[in-house]
Amino acid sequence: MPDMANPELPVPEGLVLRPFRGVRFSAGPPGGAKGVGETAKVTSPPYDLISDDDVRELLAVHPNNVVRLILPGADRHDYARARDTLRDWLDAGVLALDGEPAVYVHEQAAGGHVLQRGLIGAVALADPEQRIILPHEHVMPGPVADRLALMRVTEANLEPIFLVYDGGGPATHLVDDIATTRAPLVQADTADGLRHRLWAVTDPAELAVIAKDLRPRQALIADGHHRYATYRALQAERRAQAATPEEAAGPWDHGLALIVDASVYPPDLNPIHRVIPGLPLAQAVSRAKGACQVHEYADLAAGLAALAAADEPAYLLAGEGTACHLLTGPDPLQLRHAMPATRSARWAGLNTSILAEFLLPKVWGLSDDEQAVRIVHHDAQAAVRQARDTGGTAVILNPLSLDQVLAVAAGGERVPRKSTSFGPKPRTGLVMRTFDGG
């Protein structure tokens, strides 16, 4: 059966998570010639959550932090330096390739309020039209080009994407059994309060249980849309360059992924806020009054409480000064004219869709792109500080629900860019995949 988008690309036989030889930091003696000491000190958040200040802080904690690989060089895009660093660390024993292929059980926990377990492996790549791996967000060309250049030069998957699926089957039972009865390969207690643990599954019978359970299932990309698009772009590129069918197949037909059973370990969905540097708060509020109901609150705490209690769609605007403004009840006639006729009512009702198609272009005269609109994950106060620093406006949103995201993806649609932030995200640096490791 040919790939629906490109007949040259293979079609996986369902949801396939292949074992690979993981690349991991060597613990070794602290300060020794080999090893990095505490694993936690060389890990990082995903690349798209790291600011320039974060890079400096991570490297101050440990000079071998994985940020040197995922955001290399002073400009964060020195791909040749990432390649050379990866090779140097492997040669020096800072990083080591595991002895045999494995699928890795991964656990993240914090006290009694966070527990997420899943499997890390090399997932077989599938076109979205095959309905095996479903994206729910659109991607931007800039981040895809950046990650593609890094992956092409390093020949490695340095960070797993994050997939969720509806399971409750034998694979999940096995994951729980391993996590509760076996000693981990790695334990890392990071500064955000999470404990990360990792186990290697190498037994053929256990790998067969995982493979059989996952094969008929469908997964949703929770985090890593740009990296998944990069996986597929590199696959197409390498296959187009191959001289023979035998040379076409290779490690680029798979990509590093964490897959979590959301029916047992439901992910957290957090909002992604916007900051519009070129739009002063007073101007944003004035223009919104002709399109929405506007309610003023004395401070951010009162505004956030009102936003959490408001019927959707709702948006909190903040910036200069202490007062903030809640937008609710967009004018139905204006909204109907603004929303694309080809979209479903389900898609058109999302707060991020209304922001992207109505508020930004029609009310404020802006394009929803990386130049005009900045992104702030989770932290409303950080968004407001950034708005004040730039003389602009912060747009604070409530999170979408998992049901909303699943319904849109199942209908073959994608939510606007940066609509969701699933968590907890896999920690970068616990295990990586090089192409020569499978």
From TrEMBL:
What is any Pfam family matched here? DUF1015
Protein source organism: Spongiactinospora rosea
What is the name listed in the Swiss-Prot or TrEMBL entry for this protein?
DUF1015 domain-containing protein
